[in-house]
Specification:
Belongs to the Dps family. Pfam families: Ferritin. With 159 residues, this protein is mostly helical. Helix content is 75%, strand content 0%. Helix 1 crosses helix 3, helix 1 packs antiparallel against helix 4 and helix 4 runs antiparallel to helix 5. The longest helix is centred in the N-terminal third of the chain and has 31 residues. It starts with 9 loop residues before the first helix and ends with a helix. The model has no long low-confidence stretch (mean pLDDT 97).
Length: 159
């Protein structure tokens, strides 16, 4: 086993960086979806949702940077083109969404996909003894589970 300069197995960190790049691609699509629904939301819930969507896209933008920096920390190169993002993404693309329920449903669906990827990365990070990635995924998961709960509550649904 070969260790890198931060003490992690190089083969395992390569695999983790690949997984993190998939997460990065999905976060970039999620971010773009949030920008779109922020700009295009209409109706009686406009004022509340417009502010909430801005809060969410600001947070997503920060997470994109954190993910990219973690990929670099592991010795890899983050994806950085829209072509790469669309090839790797599983998050649904939300186009021309202006209705409140459709917008919130898109967020729930997107976060559900992100959570699947993050849980997979969390497991792999544990196996690689990569506490940095593990901690990041734990924090992301905790926040996103709460957001899913809140969005489902707004929709009048349970988790």
């Amino acid at each position: 086993m070969t260790l890198n300069s931060i003490g992690l197995d190089t083969k395992k960190t390569k695999a983790l960086a690949d997984d993190l790049n998939q997460l990065l691609a999905n976060f970039q699509l999620y971010y773009q979806n949030l920008r779109g629904i922020h700009w295009n939301i209409k109706g009686r819930a406009f004022f509340d949702l417009h502010v909430k969507f801005e809060e969410l896209y600001t947070d997503a933008n920060l997470k994109v940077d954190e993910i990219a920096e973690r990929i670099l920390t592991l010795g890899a190169t983050p994806l950085h083109t829209f072509e790469d993002y669309t090839k790797a993404a599983k998050v649904p693309v939300g186009k021309n969404i202006s209705k409140d329920e459709k917008a919130v449903e898109l967020i729930v669906e997107s976060l559900s996909e992100l959570l699947k990827i993050e849980r997979s990365i969390l497991e792999a990070a544990g196996e690689a003894n990569d506490e940095g990635t593990n901690s990041m995924m734990s924090d992301f998961i905790t926040e996103q589970e709460k957001t899913v709960w809140m969005m489902k509550a707004w929709l009048g649904e349970t988790v």
